[in-house]
């Protein structure tokens, strides 16, 4: 009790220990060690768990008693109904029988029954008859042009470079994708690394090469050493991040206080895409406007031009996307975008623009 009084008097002018630091406050109030605080809290949790289990047992016992009582009442009601409403008359001819004619009555319950469609004046819906061609197009397994499943089919995702001379054909990347296997930072990083190496070998050591990209999520993944800590991290992970960046850590700081320190001392951002291109002396220029927000950009014009020239769409089902379809789509896509009209969009610009699209 004296320790509690002294602790309250010390905090008369303000909190000496942060309010969210519960363990240290309990330790100071009670005058015990931290291990004793943990032991007391563990014992308290065990008592609460035991009390909760006892309450659950009492609730289950009460439910069982209520159910037994309800079953007895239901059985008594059923027995009374059987005595009042016997289904068959007794076959005994004894003169001592006290059953009278007035006590023999039957309880009749009328249940609503739907009438047949023919009795209502019509013969019902006519049967559906499919032709041979229609039967071939309908599948229960989601195969064919008229599939019955609701899943999404495959798509083709493309990554390409375009400059003053048109598209760079050898670096075009087109691959089949689904919802689970789609464009991400790892796939795009591998393509940037492969393409930068290819262009450096093709144009020589001293040629200036610049890639222009937009603000897609897979373009802006930070390196591990410049990625800031997240609020979902545990306290020890935040401390490891601060130690790795040589930042002083205050003593007895809460998690919320530790999270504020990195936000004031964030390192300079470095992107994985930039680091991969830097190995081959290739620069990255980021376009601050998204593709959706740009109304009249070269990339949007090229996409629109291809949309007008595309002669067909992808098959409905991923099983129909064979190698022949893929090759035809790639060739048509390359022919439609690598024409004089699309090249004219890029004449004022002296860089290679990275284009990602899906069809």
Structure explained in plain terms:
With 359 residues, the protein is an alpha/beta fold. It has three domains: 74 residues; 155 residues, no CATH class; 46 residues. The protein contains eleven helices and eight strands. The strands form two sheets. Strands 3, 4, 5, 6, 7 and 8 form a six-stranded mixed sheet that branches. Helix 2 crosses helix 3, helix 5 runs parallel beside helix 8 and helix 6 runs parallel beside helix 7. The longest helix is centred in the first third of the chain and has 51 residues. It is flat. It starts with a helix and ends with a strand. About 18% of the residues have low confidence. Keywords: Coiled coil.
What layout of secondary structure does this protein have?
Elements: H1 2-10, H2 22-30, H3 34-84, H4 132-137, E1 138-139, E2 146-147, E3 155-163, E4 166-167, E5 173-177, H5 185-203, E6 210-213, H6 235-244, H7 255-264, H8 272-278, E7 283-286, H9 298-309, H10 323-337, H11 340-344, E8 352-358
Parallel strand pairs: 1-2, 6-7, 6-8
Antiparallel strand pairs: 3-4, 3-5, 3-8
Helix pairs in contact: 2-3, 5-8, 6-7
Keywords: Coiled coil
Biased composition (Low complexity): 88-99
Coiled coil: 37-78
């Amino acid at each position: 009790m004296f320790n509690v009084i002294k602790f309250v008097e010390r905090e008369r002018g303000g909190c000496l220990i942060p309010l969210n630091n519960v363990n240290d406050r309990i330790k100071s109030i009670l005058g015990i060690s931290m291990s004793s605080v943990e032991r007391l809290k563990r014992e308290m949790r065990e008592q609460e768990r035991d009390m909760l289990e006892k309450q659950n047992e009492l609730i289950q016992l009460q439910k069982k008693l209520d159910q037994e009582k309800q079953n007895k009442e239901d059985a008594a009601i059923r027995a009374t109904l059987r005595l009042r409403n016997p289904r068959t008359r007794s076959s005994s001819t004894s003169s001592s029988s006290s059953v009278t004619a007035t006590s023999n009555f039957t309880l009749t319950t009328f249940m609503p029954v739907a009438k047949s469609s023919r009795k209502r004046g019509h013969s019902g819906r006519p049967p559906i008859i499919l032709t041979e061609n229609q039967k071939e197009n309908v599948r229960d397994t989601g195969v064919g042009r008229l599939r019955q499943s609701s899943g999404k089919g495959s798509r083709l995702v493309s990554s390409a470079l375009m400059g003053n001379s048109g598209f760079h054909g050898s670096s075009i990347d087109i691959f089949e994708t689904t919802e689970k296997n789609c464009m991400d930072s790892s796939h795009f990083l591998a393509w940037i690394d492969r393409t930068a190496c290819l262009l450096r070998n093709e144009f020589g050591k001293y040629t200036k090469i610049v890639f222009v990209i937009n603000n897609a999520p897979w373009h802006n993944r930070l390196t591990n050493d410049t990625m800031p800590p997240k609020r979902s991290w545990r306290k020890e992970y935040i401390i490891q991040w601060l130690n790795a960046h040589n930042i002083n850590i205050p003593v007895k700081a809460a998690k919320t206080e530790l999270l504020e320190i990195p936000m004031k001392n964030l390192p300079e951002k470095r992107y994985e895409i930039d680091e991969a291109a830097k190995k081959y002396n290739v620069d990255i220029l980021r376009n601050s406007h998204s593709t959706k927000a740009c109304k009249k950009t070269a990339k949007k014009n090229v996409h629109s031009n291809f949309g007008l020239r595309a002669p067909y769409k992808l098959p409905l089902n991923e099983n129909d996307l064979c190698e022949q379809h893929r090759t035809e789509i790639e060739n048509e896509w390359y022919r439609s975008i690598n024409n004089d009209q699309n090249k004219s969009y890029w004449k004022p610009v002296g860089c290679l623009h990275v284009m990602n699209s899906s069809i």
